[in-house]
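Entry 12.
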Amino acid sequence: PTIPSLVQAAAHPSAPSTFSIAQLNILASNLAKPDRFPYVQPPLLDWAIRKEILVRQLASLQADVLCLEELSDYWTFFRPTFLALGYDSVYVKRPSGHVSEWSGEKKMDGCGLFFKQSKFRLKEVESVNFSDEHDRVALLVLLQEIATNQLVLVGATHLWWNSSKIDHQMKQLVELHREMADLTEFIHAKYTEDLPAGRTVPVVVCGDFNNSPSSQLYKYMENSFLRPDWTMKSAYADYRIADGTADTGSNEPLHTTVNFRRCWAIDYI
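Predicted 3D structure (tokens):
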């Protein structure tokens, strides 16, 4: 079935010093179970079919950068498939140290970041394994635009699913904050010659945060992430969507996930 986009993809290729980015939890190959998604026709949950649909939809966005969570089959399918489409990529797999209610003990997924080879070159990569029992990860990637040498730091993560235990989610977010802050200091020291005087490296954080725009997580991202003198702003903050498909307070989409438990917005850029 055809699913209309909330916001049309920008015309491409993008102009120098601008780029497009897309964020999606693709639902790992072992997690699309009929009882969790009862409204979906069973054949469409089949991974052999679903992964091809995902590639077609993601490729149609023509995004310069793709941040994907619950990414499974990276080495055998997604990396070679997107290489053929002009994207290089990096990936971090979740550890399998604990039993999870949703994904069991053996984790098959992780976070991946794909970027157009014609647009960016890869400069630095750091993976983060959060120090708790939820086997969650983050990926931090420094890219440099080929046309202008502009640096940009992109982070992708997937916080724990249980929104009622926000202290666990906040612990992961604070850990991401610290790792990203340390990396930005390292980047500013190492790449001084690539930064105009007085300028900082732009930062973009993408992910499935598993909580709503009214949550303390969202407020922390807006008001406290990285440095007090930096202002983080949602990519949707400048949009004013008049057709009722956005939250009137935050401009976030009304939902980015639908399953048997809930229908709400939890993915952010």
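Annotation: Residues 1-12 have pLDDT under 50 and may be disordered. The chain has one domain: 21-268.
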